[in-house]
Structure formats: C-alpha cells, structure tokens
Amino acid sequence: MHQYAVKYPSGRKIWSSLRAIDSRLEKGIGSMKKIRTLGAWAGYLAALVQAVAFVWYCSEVFSKEAHTNPISWWLWLGETLVGLLIYVDRTRDMPKWLNEAVAFVGVVLVASYLSVRMFLGDAAVILAPVEPIDVGAAVTAIAAFWFWLLTRKKWGAGAAIWVFQIALITAAFPLIRATFVDPSAEPFWPWALWTVSFCLQFLCAAFRWDGFETLPNPLNYAITHGLVAWIIWQGVAP
Fold this sequence. Notes:
By secondary structure, this protein is mainly α. It has one domain. The chain is 82% helix and 0% strand. The termini are far apart. The relative contact order is 0.14.
C-alpha cells in the first residue's frame, strides 16, 4: 500500500491568509463607513435645500405673488408631522429625519399664514383655487390617514407605510390639479428645490440603510413635488 504524506500549511501561510482576510474586511467596513458618511452629508444637504426652498416660497406667498391651493397645505400640516414622528420613531439617525423636521416647520408657516389670511377676510381669495373635487380628495386623504392609524400596529410598519402613501398622494392632488389649471399660480424654483431635497433625503435613507420603511416617504414627496415643478415648467393648461 502506498502511503501519502499529508502536507499541512505552515503557520506563516495561515497567518498570511488571516491577514489577507482581515485586510479585506477592513476595506469593506471602510467602504461602508464612507457610504454612510456620504449619506449623512446628503441628509444635511437635503435639509439645507429644503430651508432655502421654503424661504423662497414664503417670500412669494407672503407677498401674495403665489396663489396656492390651501387644501394641500392644510393636509400636509398633519401629515408632515406624522411623517416626522414616523422617522424619529423608526430611526434616531438625525440625517434621515432632519429634512422632515425642516419641512414641517415650513409647512406650519405656510398653512398658518393661509389660515390667518382666510379668517381676516381674504377667504374668497384663499379659497379661489379650491374645487369640489379637492374636498373629495381631502376626505380620501383623511380616511386613508385614519385607516393607517388604526391598522399600523395590527399590520406592522411594513404594510401600513404603503397605506400612508395613499394619504400623501391624495393630499397633494388638490395642489397638483390647481397648478395644472393655472401653472402661473405657483413659483417654479421652490418646487424644483423641494424635488432635489427629497431626492437627497431618499439617498440618505438608502446609504444609511436600516430598513425600507424610511424610503417610501421621500420617494413619494420627490415624485409629487417633481410633478408640480414639471407642470409649472411646461406651462400646461387645458
């Protein structure tokens, strides 16, 4: 019978292999840290762009140059707060929810201004862009929001977050419809900047990944705000 000698790797080769594996792991971890850092910068930049857009938009609204549909802004008043609370509850990662916080402050300013003007005698002007279909959209948005509120614990965050997207879309409908009717009623650049801001927030959530629940909201906002910007840019009117 032939006997074969079994050759075992030397200690030097084993140590060399372990060091190679360790080096690859360090490179992988380093790359992940760079991606997360890039995501953080995207989140902070999103909040900055959001703030610039609201300053620009408020100057247009406060000077009565913009004639926006108030229904969407009043609905967003509640939904941006809920969106912020969802983010803060889902993640303690500031870059992800900072943009939502800035958006909430801006929505409070615009919605409050429109409300004050309406109660001070400008109701006819403030409500001029509103049509009966907008009221129907508002009812649908509120119903979807309450359905989400009642089912989020039973269904879990994963399924319930998609119900919340229905509320966001229907809330944006009145303003999108009014802008389609009269593109000159809205300024272009704030909506373009908001679109960029929410795209950056989406990248932040993707690069600092801790679950898909933080992705739908900024993606939804980016699409709806981008649609408004596109309508204004095209000057579409029936």
